[in-house]
Specification:
Number of strands: 14
Strand order of the largest sheet: 3-4-5-6-7
Helix content: under 10%
Order of helices and strands: EEEEEEEEEEEEEE
Low-confidence stretches: 168-176
Distance between the termini: 22 Å
Number of helices: 0
CATH architecture of the largest domain: Sandwich
CATH class of the largest domain: Mainly Beta
CATH topology of the largest domain: Immunoglobulin-like
Mean pLDDT: 78
Shape: elongated
Largest sheet: 5 strands, antiparallel
Structural class: mainly beta
Strand content: over 45%
Radius of gyration: 26 Å
Length: 176
């Protein structure tokens, strides 16, 4: 779900938003398998595909499909229509980085007791200049100087807390 739009948004006669992102499958749709029961769906050994097993009219069949990082898809069918292999070209696979970098600096300490957010940075409470609390739409809810912010009167939900210390900016996510 999109939380909000910026700029001009139009609708067509069916109330679809224009423009809208689209997606396209890598292979043509197949005929539904009425009466089939899926009995297994397992990832392959290289985590780049799945094996599907199903029964239909007392017979067991399988489809194995896999992909490459370049977006090459292979489907191996062993079904009521026989054995065959089809290949398709799709978009390259999106690779999500799984590494992180540990930075060596004094990170603020965050505490929340149900009513008050308290921030300290090492032993230096004065190192926090300002706290800004935003809702998920990016609207400023509260701004306060110092190391303490009262949360009284806030509804339950997701908020973003922006801390402005002397020498850098840190953002902390918190759900009261």
């Amino acid at each position: 779900m999109i939380a909000s739009f910026a700029g001009e948004v139009t609708e067509d006669s069916t109330y679809q938003l224009i423009p809208q992102a689209t997606a396209k499958g890598v292979r043509p749709a197949l005929t539904p398998l009425k009466g089939a029961t899926v009995t297994a769906l397992t990832p392959n050994g290289s985590n780049s595909g799945y094996g599907l097993k199903y029964t239909l009219n007392g017979q067991t069949y399988s489809w194995d499909y896999s992909w490459t990082p370049q977006g090459n898809y292979t489907y191996v069918f062993n079904d009521q229509d026989g054995n065959r292999t089809n290949t398709y070209k799709g978009n390259p696979i999106c690779i999500i980085p799984t590494t992180s970098i540990q930075e060596e600096h004094n990170v603020p300490q965050f505490s929340y007791d149900g009513q008050i957010i308290r921030i300290t940075q090492g032993n230096d409470i004065q190192s926090i200049l300002e706290m800004h609390l935003y809702d998920v739409q990016g609207r400023l809810i509260r701004a306060q100087q110092g190391e303490i912010m009262s949360m009284n009167g806030l509804l339950r939900g997701l908020y973003f807390l922006k801390l402005t210390p002397y020498n850098s900016i840190h953002t902390v996510m918190h759900q009261p």
